[in-house]
Amino acid sequence: MPTHSFKSTAFTLLISLIIAFDAYGQNQTLSIDEVLSFFYQRNLDLIAAQYNIDQSFAEAVIAAAIPNPTVNIQIGELSNNNLNKGSSASGCNHNANVSCGASEYYSFSQLIEVAGKRGLRIQSSGFATQAAESDFRDAVRIFSNMVRHTYYQLLQMQKNRWLAQEIVDHYEVISNANRLRLKSGDISESEFLRVKMEAMRAQSDLDNAQTAVEMAQADLAVILRWPDKSLQFEAKEQWPEVKNIGQNLPKEELISKALQQRPDLQSDKLRADQADKELELARRLKYPDVTVTAGYARDPSNNALNSGFIGVSVPLPLFYQYEGQSDKAAVNLNQSRLAAEQTELGIRNDVISALAAWNSASKIVIRFKDGLLDDALAVRNSSELAYNKGATSVLDFIEAQRSYKNVMHDYYAAEINRANAYYDLEKSMGVELDVDKAPVPRNSKRQENLQQ
């Protein structure tokens, strides 16, 4: 009889394993690095940021271009009836029936920019391209943190589901034991029903936890642009590797380090430098550019049959000296400097807030690990043991179960908050991702060649 019971139990466990494999076996567990790789490959916002770099490089090519020369050809002194016939010019046949031919003029014109305008345009476009690359790094910084938060939200929902499943399984064991105790008269029917109600509540919590997991999977799928089998992705229990990013430095040193590393501040400063060059360029517009023209003329009707000429053309800024362009560039420079100052103030606030959140989250997790988790488990086990022996009431037993569940929920939330707080601190500091994980601008080398 015991052998038959053992075989039945083994068969039941086998069926349970098969069902569990069907439910979860096809799920794909991803690490945070794998999710970030998915995001970099598929996210349109980062691609748009990359296109901004391409556009800036194209504008740099335009700014460095030298004006093209102009070639002019003219044929003159044309007539239907008389094409320089009988001309008295020395280079012409004086016979009235013989044509001397049309006059021909060939000229070459070249615009010469003065006052270093082209050099200023090249410098300005160089700052614009560097600012676009900083924008790209800033997009990586912001979007990567967004992906991490969504990833750890999924992990938190998964851990809540694991906890809910553990409690359901635990109550199932207690309920089976209570049936035997009810038949033997060890407990009252009201106690049996109370535990049964708690078991049903635990099952409802499991259903809600499963719904929360599916919603978190959908949120992650949206960020990843819904790849195949995205609703089967599961987050791996992987916590950030805490590195020394300056979290132990004094606050002012930490802020100073962030001001040096943050790509958004670098971008604003580069645009301020660009605006400064644009202002200098606008002020030099009052120095007119020179157009040099040289050419050759062949005129049979002229005493000098072949001749050359050269000329210079200069627009005179008598009525308008580009004051509007200078004023507009000065306003743009002031706005760029103000934007950089506002970004710096925001960085200071980000660093202080992120550091405070990191310190608080770390202390909370340490408190849980230093004994609170063990205490909650010990209270639950001792209460259950006492209840099974009839030494405590069903209310004390249920309260111990609820306390254990609440402590575990708070612990999971604390672990997730700590992970997010660390990545938020990295984000506020402007810490660059590993080179093999983050995309890089394509045109940096080409920009260097252009400036050379």
Short overview:
This protein has helices at residues 2-24, 32-42, 44-64, 117-184, 189-223, 251-261, 263-283, 323-388, 394-429, 444-451, and strands spanning 28-30, 70-76, 103-112, 233-235, 290-298, 306-313. By secondary structure, it is α+β, with helices and mostly antiparallel strands.
Helices and strands, with pairings:
Layout: H1 2-24, E1 28-30, H2 32-42, H3 44-64, E2 70-76, E3 103-112, H4 117-184, H5 189-223, E4 233-235, H6 251-261, H7 263-283, E5 290-298, E6 306-313, H8 323-388, H9 394-429, H10 444-451
Parallel strand pairs: 1-4
Antiparallel strand pairs: 2-3, 3-5, 5-6
Helix pairs in contact: 2-4, 3-4, 4-5, 4-7, 4-9, 6-8, 7-8, 8-9
Description:
By secondary structure, the chain is an alpha+beta fold. The protein has one domain (29-451): Outer membrane efflux proteins (OEP) (Up-down Bundle), CATH 1.20.1600.10. The protein is 66% helix and 9% strand. α4 (117-184) runs antiparallel to α5 (189-223), α4 packs antiparallel against α9 (394-429) and α8 packs antiparallel against α9. The longest helix is centred in the N-terminal third of the chain and has 68 residues, at 117-184. It is elongated and about 145 Å long. The termini are far apart. Mean pLDDT is 84; it is low at 1-25.
CATH domain class name: Mainly Alpha
Q: Which structural class do you get from the secondary structure elements?
A: alpha+beta
Query: What form results from the Cα inertia axes?
Result: elongated
| Strand arrangement in the largest pleated sheet | 2-3-5-6
One letter per element, helices H and strands E, the order comes to HEHHEEHHEHHEEHHH
Number of helices: 10
CATH topology: Outer membrane efflux proteins (OEP)
Low-confidence sequence ranges: 1-25
CATH arch. level architecture: Up-down Bundle
End-to-end gap? 90 Å
CATH superfamily: Outer membrane efflux proteins (OEP)
Helical content band: 55-70%
Radius of gyration: 40 Å
Mean pLDDT: 84
Beta-strand proportion? 5-15%
The counted number of beta strands is 6
Taking the sheet with the most strands, its summary is: 4 strands, antiparallel
Our count of domains comes out at: 1
